[in-house]
């Protein structure tokens, strides 16, 4: 039995079917794809995350390619920038831009501050340093404050001094001192993308499963996960129960522990209760005005913006908008906590915030022709200094007490996974179910890997 029809749950199902098992999938919502779905409204499509398909795993790449034919994939050059003091500064940061783009005086100040932090401060200890310590060492105080401090406050909704930095080496690239050459293949960063957004892949996965008789049960929220000493019973929100020999769960780890019956010991429930999530609201706006910024993503760390990041859908896939659309199509991402004003704001309230941000972006009188709002409640597992220890304690407890219960995926393992890592944890869990000595918890634990290059 599989809880969740996101990338991890669907991958587990594909692999189980491949090996002759007959899984059943229970999905709380009315769609497959989880966070990587593509909500649509007529010909308008929205990618709630801005999902770059990039992986270093051949196995994942082969699976992606097997699910969608070549002409349904497009190659997208990755171009990101940070909008700071009115300048679009390329990201990953390039030394020459930093030294000149905002004026030589500011450039020299940044370089001096970087030199100072490198010469006079010790290298922060991996695993224990806060994000602020890590960032100040990596970029120098001046550039850290300009580019990262505000952004991290806005997106992580926490003081960077209180956030662990263990994800930063993986996710944030250092300054490049050599100016990248556009014609050098080694410098290029190109990712794959399903023409109609990420959900196209996951709908194809569901269609593949349907061919072998496995159809995800939608509107089927799992409310209780019971173990009677021999097998498992899932209770759904409508009171229905289903039984099986193993459970692959991509529901948030905290909720899994809460719904387990018999209840785990009190100390396990307490550490699970401390696992938190940030939510994201993506507002897609189709603007009549043309606004050509040559980037897929623009980060907006400044306090003049409420929005944290802007996606330029026209630079992802033109098929996300109607074919005759001539204006701009942007996705504004608002990071929030589930009890904050932005999360509970009405659509009209959000519309007003969006309009303010569009003005800050330079639209004097924005004419919005179409607007879509997607709220993702469990978007980001929060990384605080206790996360690693708490998750390890839950993992060890589950492994010892319930070897046939397999937490998988981003929220299932409370880890900052991209699709490929969520999928790999599902694949390894299926291998484990069939007796292989693999550890799905080791996926995505490399401290220093960056995901760039050309993905063919
Ligand atoms: C803003 C943002 C940007 C991102 N960008 C990228 C990117 O560029 N590239 C990339 O590869 N990845 C990206 N990701 C990550 C990607 O979305 C996730 O890695 C992937 O969706 C994780 O898959 P999953 O199946 O583990 O979890 P999810 O996608 O969260 O799926 C879990 C599913 O379980 C269901 N569920 C939960 N609880 C229950 C329950 N009790 N009963 C039944 N069903 C339940 C949920 O409804 C959901 O459908 C991004 C994510 C976000 C939020």
Automatic annotation (TrEMBL):
Entry's Gene Ontology molecular function annotations: flavin adenine dinucleotide binding; oxidoreductase activity; UDP-galactopyranose mutase activity
Pfam families per UniProt: Amino_oxidase
Family matches, as InterPro entries: Amino_oxidase, FAD/NAD-bd_sf
Origin: domain of life: Bacteria
Domain named Amine oxidase: residues: 8-378
A GO-annotated cellular component: cytosol
Protein name as annotated: Amine oxidase domain-containing protein
Species whose genome carries this gene: Mycolicibacterium arabiense
């Amino acid at each position: 039995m599989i809880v969740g029809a996101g990338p991890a749950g669907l991958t587990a199902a594909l692999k189980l079917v491949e090996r002759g098992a007959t899984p059943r999938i229970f999905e709380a919502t009315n769609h497959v794809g989880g966070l990587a779905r593509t909500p649509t409204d007529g010909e308008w499509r929205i990618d709630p995350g801005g999902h770059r398909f990039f992986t270093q795993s051949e196995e994942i790449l082969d699976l992606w390619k097997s699910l969608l034919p070549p002409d349904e994939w497009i190659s997208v050059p990755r171009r990101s920038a940070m909008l700071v003091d009115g300048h679009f500064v390329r990201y990953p940061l390039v030394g020459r831009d930093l030294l000149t783009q905002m004026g030589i005086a500011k450039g020299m100040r940044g370089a001096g501050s970087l030199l100072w932090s490198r010469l006079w401060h010790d290298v922060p200890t991996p695993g224990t340093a806060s994000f602020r310590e890590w960032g100040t060492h990596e970029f120098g105080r001046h550039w850290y404050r300009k580019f990262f401090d505000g952004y991290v406050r806005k997106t992580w909704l926490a003081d960077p001094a209180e956030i662990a930095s263990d994800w930063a080496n993986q996710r944030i690239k250092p300054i490049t001192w050599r100016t990248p050459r556009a014609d050098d293949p080694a410098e290029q960063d190109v990712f794959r993308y399903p023409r109609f957004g990420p959900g196209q892949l996951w709908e194809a996965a569901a269609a593949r499963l349907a061919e072998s008789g496995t159809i995800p049960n939608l509107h089927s929220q799992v409310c209780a996960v019971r173990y009677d000493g021999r097998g498992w019973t899932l209770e759904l929100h409508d009171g229905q129960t289903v039984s099986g020999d193993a459970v692959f769960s991509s529901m948030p780890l905290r909720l899994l522990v809460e719904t387990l019956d018999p209840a785990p010991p009190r100390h396990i429930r307490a550490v699970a209760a401390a696992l938190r999530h940030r939510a994201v609201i993506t507002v897609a706006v189709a603007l009549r005005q043309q606004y050509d910024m040559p980037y897929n993503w623009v980060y907006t760390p400044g306090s003049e913006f409420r929005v944290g990041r802007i996606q330029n859908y026209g630079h992802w896939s033109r098929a996300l908008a109607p074919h005759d659309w001539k204006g701009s199509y942007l996705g504004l991402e608002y990071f929030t906590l589930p009890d904050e004003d932005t999360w509970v704001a009405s659509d009209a309230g959000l519309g007003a915030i969006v309009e303010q941000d569009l003005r800050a972006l330079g639209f004097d009188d924005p004419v919005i022709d179409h607007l879509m709002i997607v709220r993702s409640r469990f978007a980001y597992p929060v990384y605080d200094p206790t996360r690693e220890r708490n998750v390890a304690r839950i993992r060890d407890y589950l492994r010892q007490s319930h070897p046939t219960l397999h937490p998988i995926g981003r929220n299932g393992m409370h880890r900052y996974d991209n699709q490929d890592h969520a999928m790999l944890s599902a694949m390894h869990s299926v291998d484990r179910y069939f007796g292989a000595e693999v550890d799905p918890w080791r996926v995505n634990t490399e401290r220093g890997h960056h995901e760039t290059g050309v993905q063919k």
